Amino acid sequence: MKSPNPKAFACVLLFLILADGKTTFTETKSDEAWEILRVNVNEKATEKRVQAIRVLGLLLGDSQALEIAQKAVQDEKPEVRAAAASTLGELHARSSIALLHKLLSDIEPSVVLAAASALIKFKDPAAYEAYYEFLTGERKTGAGLIAEQMKTLKDPKKMAQLGVEQGIGFIPFAGIGLSAFQTLRVDDVSPIRAAAAKILADDTDPESARALVKATSDKSWLVKTAALEAVAKRGDPQLLDEILPAMKDDNTSVRCTAAATVIRLSTLAAAKAAKEKSTGANAK
To answer: Which letter, b or e, does each residue of 197-214 get, where b requires 16 or more Cβ atoms within 10 Å of its Cβ?
Structure first.
């Protein structure tokens, strides 16, 4: 039997030592990173806790990150609770849905908004309920926002502050464009309501459809534009006649969005009529 080559054996041994060392180094760095997060999660400074909780959303599938975020929903500071809600949404864990439902009853609207945004990822009806109330300032039938939250919806200054401090962090402004950010000023609550309108595009409740149609004649061009876009995405031809007046709006964004919405709904109406005609002909 041929004896092993001493040089080859030494190379294999060296490789195993280096590989083990690399693994140990990686594990050490990971432990160090987790320690940084744990320290900041337990900091007295609210902003440090917020930052540590927010970045946990990057750790999709990590049970430790999920556990920390779920615990953070009980934090005494609303900023931390809101960050925890947003993170739970990013982590896509269905085990967090019950916790997010509880946050919809939080006394702070910023937390409710964050929880609703997270629940949207699960197409949860309770999220649409919250966005409906942020758009209209009113409740649907059944349970809704609590009294303190409703006060905020009726207070322009508080809503504006909510938009500046919390809104951009987790409300989807993407489709509205740069002008939405320019509109976000201390005396204007429209960006939050506009974002709420966009979310309601996916809500199948007829009550939301009526709220969106009403919003197409809102005082704010931003809300009107968002509502029209939502109506277009809903794709309900029955709403066509009700949004026609928006094509005569003084604002270019509203007119153009209304025009595109009319085209889309008209096309869908024509396709529906053709299908019904074809079905009727085949039945004879």
So the answer is: bbbbbebeeeebbebbbe
Residue numbers of the chain with a pLDDT score lower than 50: 1, 22-23, 25-26, 164-187
For the chain, state the CA radius of gyration.
26
Can you give the pLDDT at residue 209? Answer: 95
Spatial contact of 174 and 162, defined as CB atoms under 8 Å apart: no
Q: Are 116 and 77 in contact (CB under 8 A)?
A: no
Task: Give 149's contacts (C-beta < 8 A, 6+ positions apart).
Answer: 107, 108, 109, 112
Contact 168, 112 (CB under 8 A): no
| pLDDT at res. 185 | 47
Rounded Cα gap, residues 7 and 4, in angstroms: 9
DSSP characters over 174-208: TTT-HHHHHH--TT--HHHHHHHHHHGGG---HHH
| pTM of the shown model | 0.66
> What pLDDT, on a 0 to 100 scale, did the predictor assign at position 119?
92
